[in-house]
Design brief:
The chain contains two helices and no strands. It is mainly α.
Length: 50
């Protein structure tokens, strides 16, 4: 994972609310994705979805 990036001066002058933002990115590996239990995350159940 790369170092977190803060907005530059140009972004801050266009968008003052960006001063609290941090951009983080990762690289996807060949490992399979893990199953997610949405109930444990507090995600509401939407009818008609899997």
């Amino acid at each position: 994972m790369a170092k977190a990036r803060k907005p530059g001066e140009a972004e801050l002058s266009r968008n003052p609310r960006a001063r609290s933002s941090i951009l983080r990115a990762g690289t996807r590996s060949d490992a399979p994705a893990r199953a997610v239990k949405f109930a444990g995350l507090g995600v509401p159940v939407v009818r008609g979805t899997a």
